[in-house]
Amino acid sequence: MSRQIVIGAGLLIALVVFPLLSPWSTVILTVALCEGLAALGILVLLRAGQVSFGHGLYFAFSAYVVAFMATARFGHEVLLLVPIATAASGLLAALIGLFIVRYRAIFFGMLNLAISMVFFSLLEKLFSITGGADGKRVPRPTLAGMTLERESFEFWMFYITLALCVVAALFVARYLLSPGGKALEAIKSNETRLEYLGVSSRKVLFGAYLLSGLLAGLGGAIIALVSGHVTPELAYWVRSGEFVFIAILGGAGGVAGPFLGALMFQIIRGYAAVYAPETWHAVLGVMLLIIIFFAPTGLYGLIAGKKRAAKPPAAVERAGAGQ
Amino acid sequence: MILLAALDGLAYGSLIFLVAVGLSLIFGVLGVLNIAHGSFYAIGAYVAASAVLAAAGMGLPTWLAFPLFLISAILVGVVVGGTVEALLLRRVYRKEEVLQLLVTFAVFMILEDAQKVIFGTQPLFANAPMNWLGTIEVFGIFYTNYQLVLIPLVALAVLVGLRTFLRRTSFGRAIVAVTQDREAAMAMGIDATRVYLITFIIGASLAALGGALSSSTTSLTPGIGSGMIVLSFAVAATAGLGRIEGAAVAALMIGLGRSAAVYFAPEFDVLIPYLIMVVVLLIKPEGLFTTLQTRKV
């Protein structure tokens, strides 16, 4: 536990100081934090051994909620837009969660993927409403009633996002230690026994799904505000895959992991875009392979050391390949 | 209109069947949902188109394109598919499903960029083979022989061939045995590692064959693989993962559904496959064809 706090605090201090030294980095860092939030949601689901290749749905949904509200000048204020959009994607997650918690493993992943692709196609095709593949512009709203210039808006958005990330990370850490969070691990290791204990695994998973939808929604709402533009690509399956990627890159052992992973992801993307603009996906892919084969506990596990490599026990060996 | 939609659906469904059946086969035997499958499709398309253009450049006859399609599909399957299985996937069969998925996701990212580097980002167009086969008239509608006869025939041949291979030949039976019980099969002296490798190569070749056949009907641009993979997921999931005959029906269903949407509700054409997938997964997550006596691979 103490190591977790040290890593989290170290990361936090670095993040607080860095933009003061190099103001150009605020937007990139904010984007990284937003993706970290979505990956944190994936981490929660990973605890239950479930992987969603469709959380771009919640990311994009709340980004579009922000875009529509901001365009309509309805609640043209960050402190209103972010909570409303996050709550909206929470609501969507609750609706979808109602039935999706009945599915496991490959079906869980595929159903998430399919639903997010339906949403993606709608965003792209309903041109008159969503602006099609070009997306929508998000006019810069006021922040706490003040109309800010671009630079100070980005500056304050970063620190607000950072604060939200800290709150979210602490909440998730607390949640994973709670009975609900512990039950998640039980879904992964032995769901039948969990049910024997009188715990409804569906209810447990519903809670986790709702939380993951809220986290992805929070990330999406902020990214819409900071980048000032939303496109259907936010809901595309490759984007959802990146969230899973980030969660594994950072390591599923602790709540600081997804943020470490997201920062690393942005750094690689940034450098690769300069030195290998054609092949930055490939660089990321190789990086992912290296992590999977040589450091399966992720960056977090590398830093926290072998002892604290709190990777949940590997799944029981597959009994038969086709099962 | 309805007839035209039906013909479109048949041509399109046959094409996605080829890709989806490879995906389904790999999942059925190896238990890995191969995200990079769309990349095999795309690479197959690029290799075939390049080969056809090169052959045309050398002044070789156009009919040579058809054996070239087959050769390039097998080549892609063996070289790319074989490398991926032997070098990467083999190490993660005993690990968590998430990691297996991510390995294929990493391969997808690498292959997507590899395509851009090797084949460039300019659209590639090689439709000579399609024009060479001419057109056919069906109830007053002209349609290319290539799309209406050749592709469905290839799909049918693959369906029948795969069935026969799995049930009648000893290696095919070995694949089925490993699928049903890997340990027992190994105890009987079957080399399961080899079975996995060859199954993966067959699956990858089928995807590449689908790509090769499609190369003549559309222009190739980066990103065709990532679109195709979700579509073949939709077909495989609708049929039930691992079902071969089911995949044929599901591919036709999705092909027809999509082409019907193209004519009657053009805004929703890309939506239909995913919608079918959602509905089927919700109602019958194990797929439509699981209770029928179709046996698993």
Could you give a quick summary of the protein structure above?
The complex is a heterodimer of chains A (323) and B (297). Chain A is mostly helical.
The proportion of residues in beta strands of chain A is: under 5%
Strand arrangement, major sheet of chain A: 1-2
Number of helices of chain A: 13
Q: Into how many domains do the coordinates of chain B divide?
A: 1
What class do helices, strands and sheet pairing of chain A give? Answer: mainly alpha
| Element string of chain B (H = helix, E = strand) | HHHHHEEHHHHHHH
Give the C-level CATH assignment of chain B.
Answer: Mainly Alpha
Tertiary shape of chain B: globular
Shape of chain A: globular
Poorly predicted runs of chain A: 307-323
Spatial sequence of strands, sheet with the most strands of chain B: 1-2
Distance between the termini of chain B: 37 Å
Beta strand % of chain B = under 5%
Name the pair of protein chains with the most residues at their interface, and give those residue counts. A-B, 49 and 55 residues
Mind explaining what this structure looks like?
The complex is a heterodimer of chains A (323) and B (297). Chain A is mainly α and 323 residues long. Chain A has a domain at 24-237. In chain A, 72% of the residues lie in helices and 1% in strands. Chain A is built from 13 helices and two strands, in the order H-H-H-H-H-H-E-H-H-H-E-H-H-H-H. Chain A has helices spanning 2-21, 26-47, 56-71, 78-100, 105-125, 127-130, 150-177, 179-196, 201-227, 237-250, 257-275, 280-294, 298-304, and strands at residues 136-137, 229-230. In chain A, helix 2 runs antiparallel to helix 9, helix 4 (78-100) packs antiparallel against helix 9 and helix 7 (150-177) crosses helix 8. Chain A is globular. Chain B has a two-stranded antiparallel ribbon. Chain B has a single domain, classed as ABC transporter involved in vitamin B12 uptake, BtuC. The relative contact order of chain B is 0.21. Chain B is an all-alpha fold and 297 residues long. Chain B is globular, with a radius of gyration of 19 Å. Chain B has helices at residues 2-30, 37-57, 65-88, 97-119, 128-132, 145-168, 170-180, 182-187, 192-214, 224-239, 244-264, 271-283; strands at 135-138, 141-144. In chain B, helix 2 (37-57) crosses helix 9 (192-214), helix 3 packs antiparallel against helix 9 (192-214) and helix 11 (244-264) packs across helix 12 (271-283). At the A-B interface, helix 5, helix 10 and helix 12 of A face helix 1, helix 4, helix 7, helix 10 and helix 12 of B.
